[in-house]
Amino acid sequence: MQGEAMMLDGDSGGATTDRAPSEDPRDGPSGGPGQRAPRTFLVVVDESEEMEVALHFACLRAKKTGGVVALLYVQEPAEFQHWLGVGELMQQERREEAEARLQSLSARANKLSGAVPILHVREGDRAEELMNLLEEDESISIVVLGSSAKGEGPGPLVSHLLSKGRTRIEIPVTIVPGSLSLEDVEQLT
Fold first, then answer.
1. CA dihedral sign, ordered 111, 117, 123, 129
2. What's the pTM?
3. Distance from the CA of 26 to the CA of which of 39, 62, 104, 148 falls in 20 to 30 A?
């Protein structure tokens, strides 16, 4: 997966990955067709402490199982529509922020898991874009989310998946308690 690059799709706001044919995620660790595909652990990126714990867990599980981590960053659409140029500038700044955040997390995920992560950038509602990605990308094996570290409830994504999303999701969801320390996570994996 060394040759993987992120390409941003300007029209849809989504991101795709570019792989060589021998690096198809459906191929097994040896790269041969018919082998079991490596597990893909999807982490939804935000600024919360619990996301950091979920990412750590996903990276360690991916390393232990020969899997790969995927990161989903969903940016809110630009709300400033009075002047087209200003709206476009705001959207470009948000995209640059998303890319910087993903590059930082990607480097950490690569170091922890031993593999270059798959990156997805979307624009819209975070919960809806998560569901859309899961429906589009069959290589995703597990969604890893962190629950609130401060006891404020499960968090909006976990709540969505447990209520509205439960009929649409067809893969396991791992909810990592956000109150765990990174050392606790290492003992779990």
1. negative
2. 0.76
3. 104
The residue written with tokens 């991916």 in the block is 62
Instruction: Write the CA distances from 81 to 74, 84, 94, integer angstroms.
Output: 19, 6, 15
- Tens-level pLDDT at each residue, the chain (189 residues): 333 334 333 333 444 333 333 344 434 444 455 566 789 999 999 988 899 999 999 999 999 999 999 999 998 876 655 666 777 788 788 888 888 999 999 999 999 999 999 999 998 999 999 999 999 999 999 999 998 877 776 778 888 887 877 777 889 999 999 889 989 999 887
Structure tokens at 14: 């989504």
List strand residue ranges (DSSP E) for 34-141, in order. Answer: 40-45, 68-75, 118-123
